[in-house]
Write a structure and sequence with these properties.
By secondary structure, the protein is mainly alpha-helical. Helix content is 67%, strand content 0%.
Length: 375
């Protein structure tokens, strides 16, 4: 389950790769399917499942964020928060670079206001900055506070929508007020907060207990999914105005439940059924590059002549071809010796500021010899 060379958690990479596949097909249908086919079952199911990809990416970003907080627990409080803010800054800078690149490639057709659009990367950076104070906690305390933060973000989303925010500049308002046209901290940031809770819990799980943990993950996923559907169908609500597909806490519960179920399935597959190289896991190890490149291909100027002009069968073929292309891009990126590039360019190698006190690993039934050597 845990790579011995890269120290990556394999089933999370596989889950991230699955989210990439879901995203690729969703964006392909959204970009290229002709208007008269958008009322059919193919488009509806494509977009229904495609909307899950962002929730998974945000959740897994939170997991990584929480794992980083775990590794820095030996530092003073202010340094832990500062390191978390630096990670949030990194995510936000990626969002700025992504928006700058897409605008530049579309120039002069794209207005300068496109630079201010809020995408999922922006939400990752902004939410990470808001919850950086979770680094002050440790162990189960951080798990509880992160789960509470996710719950509060989800619960407050309809209230944020009901506020009169017309006085706030539109670019800033887009970060907080739920919208059908873009991502926002409310409610999407809830998935990152819940991911921090999950990432903070990883070192607390005893070796050999992960099968039981993932069983509970599946049960929790079913409970969240069914509970979200039940409460969304009630004829009354505690909120004055709540739209399920926009700002409903029930939607967050459903998407979080599906994420838990898919995580359990990813664990089962990678731990007991998968043998050898996995193209899904390969996509997961380079998901940022896959996201960056495919957005330019689907929504950029390269294939603009085919925008909203293809039938369902052609979109299926394009989606399959895009997945194959992204696998090739992923393999090419992994072959580049990124750590050696500064040396090849004559730049001085950076000196790490500190070494993590511990690398958290998940035990695997496939590694008995490794466990005995540790003993």
């Amino acid at each position: 389950m845990h790579s011995t060379t890269t120290q990556r958690i394999v089933f999370l990479d596989w889950l991230r790769g699955l989210a990439a596949v879901i995203m690729l097909q969703g964006h392909t249908f959204d970009a290229f399917l002709r208007p008269e086919s958008r009322t059919g079952a193919a488009f509806i199911f494509s977009q229904f499942f495609g909307g899950q990809a962002a929730a998974i990416f945000l959740f897994l970003t939170g997991v990584t964020y929480g794992l980083g907080m775990n590794r820095r627990e030996h530092l003073p409080a202010w340094r832990r928060v500062l390191a978390a803010l630096r990670r949030a800054r990194y995510l936000f800078l990626l969002a700025v670079l992504f928006r700058l690149q897409t605008w530049a490639f579309a120039w002069p057709r794209s207005p300068w206001t496109d630079l201010l659009r809020v995408d999922v990367l922006n939400v990752m950076g902004a939410t990470a900055a808001l919850v950086c104070i979770l680094a002050l906690q440790s162990g189960l305390d951080r798990v509880r506070w992160a789960a509470l933060a996710g719950t509060l973000i989800a619960a407050a989303s309809p209230l944020i929508s009901a506020l009169n925010t017309t006085a706030i500049p539109a670019p800033l308002r887009a970060y907080f007020v739920p919208s059908y046209d873009s991502f926002s901290i409310f409610p999407w940031g809830a998935f990152l907060a819940f991911g921090v809770a999950a990432g903070s819990m990883i070192p607390l799980v005893e070796r050999g207990a992960w099968s039981r943990v993932m069983q509970w993950s599946a049960l929790s996923g079913f409970a969240l999914l069914l509970g979200g559907q039940y409460f969304s169908g009630l004829p009354y609500s505690v909120y004055h105005g709540s739209e399920f597909w926009l700002n409903s806490p029930a939607l967050v519960a459903c998407k979080l439940g599906i994420t838990f179920l898919l995580a359990s399935g990813a664990f089962l597959w990678t731990e007991y059924l998968s043998v050898g190289w996995s193209w899904v896991q390969q996509l997961g190890t380079t998901s940022l590059v896959v996201y960056w490149v495919h957005v330019e291909l689907t929504y950029g100027r390269w294939f603009a002549d085919y925008r909203q002009r293809l039938p369902v069968v052609a979109c299926l073929a394009v989606a399959a071809a895009l997945v194959l292309l992204m696998i090739g891009v992923s393999l090419a990126v992994k072959r580049i010796p990124w750590r050696e590039l500064p040396k090849m360019l004559g730049w001085p190698a950076p000196t790490p500021k500190f070494q993590p006190a511990e690398i958290y690993e998940l035990s695997s039934p496939r590694e008995p010899e490794r466990e005995r050597r540790r003993a």
